[in-house]
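Memo to structure team: turn this sequence into structure tokens by end of day. - J.P.
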Amino acid sequence: MEKFVKNLKRGGLPTRCWLYMLILLLSFGLPASIFAQTDLVKVTGTVTDETNQPVPGVNVLLKGSSNIGTVTDIEGKYTLNIPKDATLIFKFVGYKTTEVAVNGKTTVNLSIQPDVKQLEDVVVIGYQAIKREKSTAAIASVAGEKIENIPVPSVEMALQGKVAGLNVLNITGEPGAKGIVTLRGNTSIASQDSRSTPLYVVDGIVMDEGDLGQIDLTGTNPIAGINPNDIESIDVLKDASASAIYGARAANGVIIIKTKTPKAGKPQVRLNGYYGVAMKPTMRSTLVGTAERHLKMDLIYQYLGKPGMENVNYWITDSLNPAFNNHTDWQSNVIQKARIQNYDVNVSAYGEKTSYRLSYNFYDEEGTVIGTGFTRNTASLYLNAHPYSFLNLTGNIRFSEMSRKKTNGSINIFSTWSFPSSFFKLTDEDIENFKGNNLDELDKNLNRDLYANFQANIDFTPYLKWTTSYSFGYSTTRNDYFIPSYRNNGNAYATSSSGSVKRWEIENYIQYLRSFKETHNLSVLFGQGAEYSYIDNLWGEGNYIASNSIQTIQGVVSKNSNASSSIEERARLSWFARLSYDYKDKYLFSANWRMDGSSRFGKDNRWGHFPSVSAGWIITKESFFPENQVTDFIKIRGSYGITGNDPAGFYDAYRALTTNVDYRGGSGITSYNGSGTIAYDFGSAVTSRELGWEESKQMNFGLDAHFLNKRIILTGDYYIRDSESMIFNYALPVTTGYTEAKNNLVSVRNSGVELQLSLDLLPHNWDWSWTIDANIAMNKNQIKKLPNGNRSIVTGSPWMEWILTVGRPLYEITGWRSNGIYATDDDVPVDPLTGNRMTFFGTTMQAGDIAVVDQNGDYNIDYNDKVSLGNPDPKYYGGINTTVRWKGISLGVFCNYVIKRTFWNGFLSDRMNGGVYSAGGWGNVSGPALDFGGLKYYTTPGQQADLPTLIATNHMDNRHIAHEIYTDNGSFFRVKNISMSYEFPTALVNKIKLQRLRVYGYMDNVWVFSKSKTYPDPENINTNGYANGSEYPLPHKFTLGAEITF
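Reply from structure team:
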């Protein structure tokens, strides 16, 4: 491994690698063509756009010739010597390709027309862009304009519900925090909290979240450093035929982001900004004032005389008590109406030889919880130089700084448990102290990222192209945490952590593109790549800091401090190839291959091979297909491929040396003069040299169809993805001296169906337009293999467990099946052998208890009676977007939904756990009161209730979260955002020396519909499916903005 890493650090590759490339290059040859130089005429002209502005960079080509042509200059002018009866072809990205017959003329001018569908007809795959109709892979695209100006800090939040099969859940309303993003189901087995995240590639730069996760203790979303308004297009590579070219990094799919580049015409300056507010979110439903008192009096009357009700505080019933009529709303003291602001400025110019785009973005979002917020500064630079006709140079540089403030993590300030009764009468000083107790902890987070990509493209011939690409990334993160002494039992405590990732990647590849007799179309790509990552971390803590004003690890004696640091390195070497062929543009074939070598594995398992094949058939181009005005295009396609993953730890496959010297200067195990020894230390896990690649084998069948001149577009896919040889930690017998080992032991299958439908409903010659985009995805997750003879594995704690079982989804929540509430003691089943009523862990059950299903028939409920209660990952999910336009006015509504998802409603079980009264102050009489409206809890014998008794001293533990009655329906339908905009007429804005003027407004997170009776938002739950009311709620946002282009 050491030699492998050192070679890559030096950027060196074996001599034979370069020799192979040279042989490949020479084998293609340098074809040339000769054109008779007779009857030529000098033709000149100017190319303009729809606003009569000159367009530089337009390709002007002689039809029928492969090597005669030119490009327009900065003034849109061109000159060519061509036959007088020739035909010119004008091509430019984003505009319709136009053919013009010369017919002996010496001047040929053209006004090119924009082609709004052209960008939609091109998809970006690994290392190439191809026509969508020729794609044989499952690829979904989202135009940048679909996500512009949505008031979210990160691009993946804007993608929610827009791509079939891409499941995006915004589980927290905390600004800058991560959400859940999975593509075609979850495959992560690390824990019940983990999810498999797609690979992000931004302008050719790989965003390796695995590396970033090694240093990030802030919880900040690394993708949030990208300004969504800078994005031109997003292509989501779903199946292995599209993503296998990325090999070891593409097991969970690939999201390719292409940022904006300069457009033809005069230099442009674009200003864009919006300002708005995040409203106070829907809080957990509690009662205050008179409503609270009425509920508590009802509880007292219903349970009077029951155990635990002997010492109810007098102020609850004494109307002469000053606190009797108080109504302090504790939740409102820690939340606020928050500010959101976003400002963009970019300058761009497109020239014949040089183009550039410079962009800056400032985004600032206050949290709706006082003391939280997220701020981002992002600057990016795009440069393109075309010094020679055969050479094209491109550079992309992006810098971002993200600052994120958080509240304390030791108290759940959104849970009603954090608040006392509203009856307590407090002064303003008391209220401020209450805020301080909940908000005074310092949790500052700072992330800085610098990414750069430089690319050189050489056209040896019209058919043979060479590309060299170099990418560099440098990310740093820092977290400072402090808790004052009055919040921590007199101990002022601080921690500080920082880390950095340095990463470089170099890729070289050659492409051969050729058409033969306009029948056979061939594309061959072959290349190699190398990458290297260096990761370092530093962490320290200090106890009993001298003053609450210091808030850092300063002046702490050694016995009250601790520190650690680490350095890790990773390297990967790759070879890749692609062959694409089509016959008459209707029979399509593509094959990909990639070989990756990873330093994470031992020498015998270092290399992984990842091939894929795909094919397609455009039926509508067959002669037997009847011509009609309804069906424009039908293509069927299929693919099979293998992608890989190397999620092992950096050194899991190697035997590590560690020192036993104590960090304070003392010694651990000593062997000579008190000095620390260096010895083999495996920790608690056994090193596994057999550790190897995880593999994802995926099969996909798809259909693409267009009707009525693309007025109706339908895309459907069916897939089966088997994730095999997944790395898993499994327990070892204590006699081995270790607790666990790691190996390739688990297999998981995801299968499903995806449908995407686009409708353009009104005639194009109307002033009105109405479009609808809708998608739905169904995913079935299933474990196929587990270690130790496929025995089920239970994780978590006894009161909240998840289970892995062959044939079932990953990490299902488990518990006791419920069959209602016992109305009387006689309803409790009786063991015919003993004559005793059923027991719960040996305690006799009675009226008011939950009727738990006895799975094994032994008349005693225990852990052996637990079963699967549901899956926290949704089975169906998708989105619906509709837009209506009339002249310059546009109105859009976007909704997303989730169907068939189960979660634990800990908010409800916690309140039941409070009982009626407790001297500690957290009962439903003595503490804050949950709104029990619409809930039927047990109070009197014979009552048919939905919830058990509130008596905390009842014999059975009725408030245990593991009971089925505390599982809830996580399905929801959300009106995600509503947008409205007006674009002023071009003729009007030109009079004031502007190119474009547009105003707009957004409402985000407008409304949510769900079946949960007690939980306000079923999307706002933890990754593992548990929600106790402490999650940061999702706010409602309202923004207004304007866009001006000079």
